[in-house]
Structure prediction request, 485 residues.
Amino acid sequence: MDTTAMHIANGIVNGPVSAIFAVFAVVALAFCVRQARADLDDRLAPMAGLVAAFIFAVQMLNFQVLPGVSGHLLGGTLAVILVGPWVGALCVSTVLIVQCLLFADGGLTALGLNITNMALLGTAAGYVLVVALLRLLPKTPAGLGTTALIASIISVVVASQGFVLEYALGGTTELSLPWISGTMAGVHVLIGIGEGVIAATTVATVARVRPDLVYALRRFRKPVNVEVGAAA
Amino acid sequence: MGAGHAHPLHLQRESPVHRLAPEVKIVAVLLFTIIVVITPRTEFWAFGGYLVLLAAVAIAARVPATWLAKRATIELPFVLLAVTLPFFGHGERVTWLGLSLSVDGLHGAWNIFAKGTLGVLASLLLAATTTMRDLILGLDRLRCPTVFTQIATFMLRYLDVLADDARRMRVARLARGYDPRFLWQVKAFAVSVGALFLRAYERGERVYLAMVARGYQGRLPRRADDRAPTAQWVAAASLPVATAGIALAAALG
Prediction:
């Protein structure tokens, strides 16, 4: 059975551990907010909203992975490539907060846990991988798509192991950890492949048509000397 | 689009709970859920008391029980996890109807089921009585960083844009002789997902620039004196206060 068919609910992980992760999430997000302020310009603000909406929509796609097991996409890697790590983490967190408050998806006291796994761990792993892979792969739409595919798979598995860590620290029942870890990892490899395909097609299309919108390619962009006329 | 910015879980009613300021409701639900989660799982009757409190709120908000029950099925995957716990748990075991069940697992299952259900019901009541716009307004008044409310505002706008553009693209495919069957739609979807993203972005970018041109600075305009009156805070506080009362009574009793 997969526990991320929906996000972590109230009562799965005990109070103290939930509180610790809530504090951790708040501190980490406050840092992201500070960092994001520099990033969030006129081009990124609507992009951040769209990425959040897109993640919101794809998280609703619960797909059947194994009999009785379903999972959903996380979207962290897509966010990292299009809006960068700081705004990306904020996008995923916003999705989680709205889902929790308005769609009763994920427990309110488990919000810290969910944000740590999906918004922080998932995007952090995605970001590290994207930066590393873009060093090796060509900075073309195809290269970016491949990067998105690989980074998605690994970051989703990393995020799922975040749940295992939290459960190990404060699970409300005794279940064997290697079993949970193995099940979560196995299921999330499959989810990661699905996520990777969606992220790769999206990112490759955007990179082909509007490369100016891709955050991950910013560092490789050649500075363009725009001659500003006197009339401007 | 004609439905305004309501969301699927919003229930348009005229009730005292609907009229409460959003920030008041968010705080009340948050406190309620925290108390529920820290209640020890063996205080069985306390959970019954919490359920009665939520029922009172539901009646005040004029939200039908069947409506709540139907939406609460979102919790089902977790209930399924809970059902398996008594079989896989360790420790002391009891025999019931010829099945060997773990006591720890039974308690764990009850814990997940009770706390999960109460949390889902509380969130559903908040969602049923608050529109998306009000929710963001509430978060803004609770001093939530502007970056969040800004992303959330755009996210809600874009959800409509995405859904509409997806529908338009599907109609365009149908008009060109495309005959979607169950699983084969996936291929068309996968091919068009990037295009959908770009179309939605460009549509939204125009809206955003139009907003900036009209003086938008990352936050929707609000009146100066829009703080929730004390009476509303007091009214909403009755839920967490009653919950805390039950929790205390259970802890002492």
In short: The domain at 15-219 of chain A is CATH 1.10.1760.20 (Arp2/3 complex 21 kDa subunit ARPC3).
